[in-house]
Amino acid sequence: MDRVDHQIVALLRENARRSYQDIGGRVSLSAPAVKRRVDRLERDGVIRGYAATVDPSAFGWHTHAFVELFCEGRMSGTQVREAVAEHPEVEGAYTIAGGPSAIIHVRAADTQHLEGALERIRETPGVMRTQTQVVLSTLFERPVMDGQARPARNSAATESRATWRSRGKAGGK
Predict the structure, then answer these.
(1) Which pLDDT does position 164 carry in this prediction?
(2) Cys-Cys crosslink for 46: which of 41, 58, 125, 164, Cβ 3.0 to 4.6 Å?
(3) What's the CA dihedral at 29, 31, 36, 39 to 10 degrees?
(4) Do 68 and 122 touch, CB atoms closer than 8 A?
(5) What's the burial of 78, exposed, middle or buried (CB within 10 Å: 0-12/13-18/19+)?
(6) What's the pLDDT at 167?
(7) Using the 8-state DSSP alphabet, how is residue 134 labeled?
(8) pLDDT at 150
């Protein structure tokens, strides 16, 4: 992916309904050239799909939590996924390093609904126990960076060396 691909992806992440013509105007390409790049990004799996971002509270899901799953023995990621995917309250599931086998993001209407969902998850074969952190407020959420805001490699070290050199020269060394 080159710089223009990163810009195209960033623009689509802001608004997936943006036209090829609009994107082209922002990245200095024709609409057909943008379409070819988007088609390639889709084919290469960089762009995996398009979706509407909705507010869960608009659907009555006002409570959410991050739940650590402690599973029996060597329960594989596939087995963990199968254990939690059937629960509509589970928004995401991730294998992690550390004590728990996985962490899941659960949404519910309220704490009673959350408690019921957790009880059902704990009844799943292979799940030994859970530990739950209920979210009190969301400070911010951010999509994955498009690569443009990544800090320069060794920028602090480079800046320190440049500062040291300039001070050395200024000090007559």
Answers:
(1) 39
(2) 41
(3) 120
(4) no
(5) exposed
(6) 44
(7) E
(8) 52
Run of H or E including 43 = helix 31-43
Kindly report the pTM of this predicted structure: 0.69
Half-sphere exposure of 164 (CA within 13 A, CB side): 6
Q: Are 100 and 131 in contact (CB under 8 A)?
A: yes
Percentage above 70 pLDDT, the chain: 82
Q: Which domains does the chain have, with CATH numbers?
A: 3-43 (1.10.10.10), 56-134 (3.30.70.920)
CB 93 within 8 Å of CB 81? yes
Counting as low any pLDDT under 70, the low residues of the chain are 143-173
Helix (H, G, I), strand (E, B) or coil at 5: helix
Q: CB of 97 within 8 A of CB of 83?
A: no
